[in-house]
Structure formats: C-alpha cells, structure tokens
Write a structure and sequence with these properties.
It is built from one helix and no strands. It has 59 residues and is mostly helical. The chain has one domain. The chain is globular and about 25 Å long. The termini are close together. The relative contact order is 0.34.
C-alpha cells in the first residue's frame, strides 16, 4: 500500500517527536492513500508544496 504524509520538511524516519496532541484522532503520524489530500494538508499548515518524498520502508 502506498501512503502519503503532507509536509514541507525533510525527514528520514517516522517520529512522533513533533506530533500534536489535539488532532482529529489524537497524537500520531497521519497518512492518506490520496496524494492530493496529503498536499492539501501540508499546504493548509506549511504553505505550497514544493516536493514529494517517499517514506517506503520507513514505517
């Protein structure tokens, strides 16, 4: 399964160090199977998306 996480930050591993407690489903690393939805999430928080990064094998 391919999932997407919307962010404008580089990362090389999944970490909850920056996760917020007050999200829809609590603290966590949110993903979606819909690339456009991940881009919308990132843009609403970080501004326009400039790149996509694969996290395959990092979960």
């Amino acid at each position: 399964m391919k999932v997407f996480h919307g962010t404008n930050a580089d990362f090389d591993r999944v970490s909850l160090d920056f996760a917020k407690d007050r999200r829809d489903f609590g603290r966590g690393f949110y993903t979606t199977t819909i690339r456009e939805q991940a881009a919308d999430w990132a843009e609403s928080i970080c501004g326009p998306m400039t790149k996509y990064q694969s996290i395959a094998g990092r979960l």
